[in-house]
Amino acid sequence: MNRTLLPLCAVLLTAFAPAALASSFAGTSAGTSAGGSSASSDASSDSSGDDEDKIVLAARDDAASFVASDGAIRGARLEAALRTLRERDAEARQASDLELARAILAL
């Protein structure tokens, strides 16, 4: 991994790790209890951030195709994720599409 990609991966991991943990918790039996439901509904009140997280996480398959094809295959979900990342993060604006796709795969 090159030196530019490491800080970008760290930024992406810190941005998306809470969403990944929350979604995995919601899938457990504890997440479906009455207490868990009210807690998860309170936590999901900031839906714009959650929607952005979902866009990026949904792009993993497209990112894998993009990386494997050395940029020849560009899916719509990857394009949406790249746009979202660049709107949210100044470091992402400086990264290439391939660097961002690799960072998405590292999530």
From TrEMBL:
Keywords: Signal. Residues 1-22 form the signal peptide. Residues 28-47 have a biased composition (Low complexity). Residues 28-52 are annotated as: Disordered. Pfam families: DUF2388. This is Uncharacterized protein (TIGR02448 family). It comes from Vulcaniibacterium tengchongense.
